[in-house]
Amino acid sequence: MKVCIIGAGAGGMNASGRIRQLDKNARIDIFSTQSEIGYAPCELPFVLRRSFTNWDDIFFPGNFFEQNRISVHLNTEITDILRDKKCILAGNQSYPYDKLILSLGAQPTIPGIPGLDGQNEFTLTSNIADGKALDAIISKYNSAAVLGAGAIGIEITLALLERGYDPVYLLDVMPHILPASLDEDMTGKIEDLMEKKGVKLILPARIERVTSGFGKKIISLKEQELEVDFMVLATGAEPRTGLAKKAGIKTGATGGIVVNEYLQTSDPEIYAVGDCMENWEVITEGKTRRLMVTTAGITGNVAGTNLVKENSIPYQGTAMTFIIKIFDYQIGSVGFTERVARQKGLDVTCVTSKVPRTRPAYGGKGVYYKFIADRKTQTLVGAQLISEHEVAGMINELAVVLMKRIPLSIFSQLDIPYSPLIGPDPVRTCVAELLAKL
């Protein structure tokens, strides 16, 4: 079997490795427009922070592609998919396939702000070249503005603080940070901390225009002007689907490539994974975008398995999990925010409070939480956690409950361990409060 994979990110890598596990004789070719692959893109902001000594530290050990006998084509742009001939073209070179996987990734969305001209305006994508370009510019200057208060924008802002930047502005059109993962009533504590540490938050920000001149960027807001050395645009991304559309492969309302439960596209010989595919969430089964490295890895494994094992594993959809660390706090979420749940027409109720992780005598600190439940189904549809303790375990637990649609009355009876030194799982208290309110 001949398999071609377009895109060597997490989706493409996981798919190629899974195919090799299941088929020792398959011919696997993977194509990338980049000059370097085999690194963790989510770690790019942490090289900028100098959490790593150099760029080489984020490359995976060993030679994954060589060990798995996967032919890698770097600096290679696939220009056409000839579905009738079952081959792909890179310039004048043709590569035949029996099965094809599209792992095309996403591309930054640039806001339509008057005056943006590309001068000293940067984005950070999964391409290591973007990270290196931003690193080079950071070394030359000392002031910047970051547009977009999502995870990438915050991580770049923290990197600039680590590098001694003053001022560093963080702007967003929404009234609070992390709008895709948190509601406004959960963000105040973190925003106050960020400002105390030196971040100049402007939320919401209405930028009227941007001007370039004398080596500076002038950002004109309604009530003030900001003068900085450069800007970072972390204003979101959209599925990269141009190649698929050119080949007549169907895309959906979200902009992603339409796939079935086995991740086949409208052409059953072609699969799509990761950021370029149209995903679906597990609460209402509505279509959504899910531009996350974890989802790319999962879908890559699923598609690789189905390609060899004849569609044996259906993809389950996304629970929309999220986690980030901002200074000493870990922030996690799963499912819908209250705002999104109400927009989708759900009749929800919420509880918001603080639960001690352990007794103060044992060094315990609180967990700030918000739980969101659907009155009709009596199930969890969203949760948000903020703590100086680890929250990943609780988010994982909640993701399973949400994905399996476990009723809160059953969830409240889970046999959860307890020790005075370790403490109880705060989720139990949260669920009890939610049930009482329902």
Give your account of this protein's structure:
This protein has twelve helices and 25 strands. It is α/β, with parallel strands linked by helices and 438 residues long. A five-stranded parallel beta sheet has the order 3-2-1-7-18. A five-stranded parallel beta sheet has the order 9-16-10-11-12. A hairpin with a 4-residue loop joins strand 4 (80-82) and strand 5. Helix 1 (10-22) runs parallel beside helix 8.
Low-pLDDT parts are none
Look at the helices and sheets and give the structural class.
alpha/beta
CATH superfamily of the largest domain: FAD/NAD(P)-binding domain
Q: What is the CATH third-level topology name of the largest domain?
A: FAD/NAD(P)-binding domain
Features:
438 residues; alpha/beta; FAD/NAD(P)-binding domain; Enolase-like, domain 1; five-stranded parallel beta sheet
SSE blueprint and pairings:
Blueprint: E1 2-6, H1 10-22, E2 27-31, H2 44-48, H3 64-67, E3 70-73, E4 80-82, E5 87-90, E6 93-96, E7 99-102, E8 106-108, E9 121-122, H4 128-138, E10 144-147, H5 151-162, E11 168-171, H6 188-196, E12 199-202, E13 207-213, E14 216-221, E15 225-228, E16 230-233, E17 237-239, H7 242-246, E18 270-272, E19 279-280, E20 287-288, H8 293-309, E21 322-326, E22 329-335, H9 338-343, E23 348-356, E24 366-374, E25 379-387, H10 392-403, H11 408-411, H12 426-437
Parallel strand pairs: 1-2, 1-7, 2-3, 7-18, 9-16, 10-11, 10-16, 11-12
Antiparallel strand pairs: 4-5, 5-6, 8-17, 13-14, 14-15, 19-20, 21-22, 22-25, 23-24, 24-25
